[in-house]
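User: I'll paste a sequence; please echo it back and then give the predicted structure.

Assistant: Echoing your sequence first, then the prediction.
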Amino acid sequence: MRLSRFFLPVLKETPADAQIASHRLMLRAGMIRQEAAGIYAWLPLGFRVLKKIEQIVREEQDRAGAVELLMPTLQPADLWRESGRYDDYGEEMLRIRDRHKRDLLYGPTNEEMITEIFRSACRSYKDLPKLLYHIQWKFRDEIRPRFGVMRGREFLMKDSYSFDLDEAGARAAYNKMFVAYLNTFARMGLKAVPMRADTGPIGGDLSHEFIILAETGESQVFCHADLVEMGAPGAVDFDGDLQPLVDARTALYAATDEMHEAERFAVEVPEAKRLSARGIEVGHIFYFGEKYSAPMKAVVTHPDGAQKPVHMGSYGVGVSRLAGAIIEASHDDAGIIWPESVAPFGAAIIDLKPGDADTGAACARAYEALTKAGKEPLWDDTDERPGGKFATMDLIGLPYQMVIGPRGLKEGKAEVKARRTGERHELGLDDAIARLAEGAFGG
């Protein structure tokens, strides 16, 4: 993409109402624009990041055996009356009435609708297990939306739902999502710690939040320090026994402030390993048994002929929230530092003298080679002064910058800068292009 053709409305001044780094940087980098309180338009740069995050989430759900579908944003209120949640959910639910006086709501979550979909088609133990998910916009009418996409009213969420014959099957599904979430966040360069959590309005008796440690986090969290450095499981057999992997990460103390037990923390965790910090929730998983299936009559016939409600769980990932969480975990004074897996473009090509035939030809060569290599380059061919170009590229945080100008080209050279480390490499032009295309630079 040529920057002259792209839509990148960067801001030189920091918006006064942006309180945390991710909100400030997303506005300044032209990723988002506020349209109403807690409601944002995702501009082209931000949208590219959002789609990268969404695709990683999708790939890891598919790998775990979940099947994708898409449910509508508007839901019939009668489904929520069946489950008993319509009146209980509170003012965060946006309630709507259509021209035929039918009550609808803008879905804050989808337990009721997916239960209705399941019960309409599955009636026998032979239809189980099922693990279904979608990636869809949600709306919760927060009383005080703040922190940009970290606590907005409209947000993009991956929510999946499991249906099993009994508790043992449901816990196996729970473990699949537990492991899939660890792999998902690791692919985005994040260290996510699973923590015992309150089930809240979703309900149930087993729940874990996945927390990214950050000073701007909303929750106070307490955990064994070793959990932060424990790597993701990686490739596993999702049809095998995942309990040992889960046990290894739940045996050590970890809890959000709602579930924290100070005495237990002091006894179980050596003083040198006690970690108390702020954290950002990026995922939440629940096992809630028959909470929805019983009142909504989502029953199947068991091998003995008895009809019983299925056991269910739900599993959420804040896709749009992750964009902010990644920035909170990865930025400096100059701007964002994207992990390569979610960067909107893989590299910047900075033309220091637009209109010059030699620099234009060299930039075109680099652009073509990096495009063929799948690096998705952004070519800054604008008339902006060099200092402004460098500042913009640092702000938007692309992993690499290739700087091409007349002075270097006289010696046949170009400069490559790694955004994360700040390291600069002056190389022959062809060598710089080849190494960047091969991913040979450490950033």
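The chain has a mean pLDDT of 94. Residues 167-187 form the longest helix (21 residues).
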